[in-house]
Amino acid sequence: MRARRAGVFLGLALAAHGLGAGAVPARELVDRARHAAARGDHAAVVRAYEEVRAAGLESDDVLYNLGTAYAHLERYGEAIACFEVVDRRATLALGVSHNLRAARLRLARRDAARTGRAVVDSEPGPWIALGETLPLDASVGLTVLAELLVLAGLWWRRRTEQELARVGATLAVIVAGAVALLGALVATSRLGAPPWAVVLRDGVSLRQTAREDAIPEGRVREGERVERRGREGEFIRVRTLDGRGGWVRSRELGLLPR
Description:
This protein has helices at 12-16, 26-38, 42-54, 60-72, 76-89, 94-115, 126-131, 136-159, 163-192, and strands at residues 196-199, 204-205, 219-220, 225-232, 235-240, 245-249, 253-255. Strand 5 and strand 6 form a beta hairpin. The strands form two sheets. It has a five-stranded antiparallel β-sheet, covered by helices on one side. Strands 2-3 form a two-stranded antiparallel ribbon. It starts with 11 loop residues before the first helix and ends with a strand. Helix 2 runs antiparallel to helix 3 (42-54) and helix 5 packs antiparallel against helix 6 (94-115). The protein has three domains: 9-115, Tetratricopeptide repeat domain (Serine Threonine Protein Phosphatase 5, Tetratricopeptide repeat); 133-192; 196-255, SH3 type barrels (Roll), CATH 2.30.30.40. Helix content is 54%, strand content 12%. By secondary structure, it is of the alpha+beta class.
């Protein structure tokens, strides 16, 4: 597990407010997880970080380390859900993207070994994929910054009398305008995308009604991304990327942020 402690302790004070009398402090739980990871006890890592998470702390560092421990235990759906959350919130999280791809690849290999056939994940369309290139706050910030640079370039182009400077200002305006357009498209795509979730476990039933006694009419795969389309009690109505719809227990899904 990568040692990503710098951001963890910044949020521990927040978690402390959610701990009842006699509960283990979040700092101690993080230390337990770190020592357990050092000796390769991934089950203990998961137990510690799940307690931290239950206390209300879901920082990127906690989710990254928890997802890594899940992957070591071959709990790939839960690992993918953790990595997806961090990947959607963090800018240029290359390590998270690598672990996310590795978890999906390991899950596909495991499923292929079980079923004897290749497992192909359905992918969101290009418009949705565009919206996932940057977190929403980063795309909005990039758009605003680029628009300010456009205004600055136009102002400088009007003020300067040197031809070379005017050409440079024009090029700067064109580049900044393109960046602003890209940022706006990413933000628009992210805001318009449906809410997503990840199937946490293998063999999750897809029901046609939101009832415990409903006869399952299919299953969704562990680690599969599904669109959330409504909720009724303990069930969430979902639609898979290949077009199947139904109801799944909420505890069997990891909800993803926009």
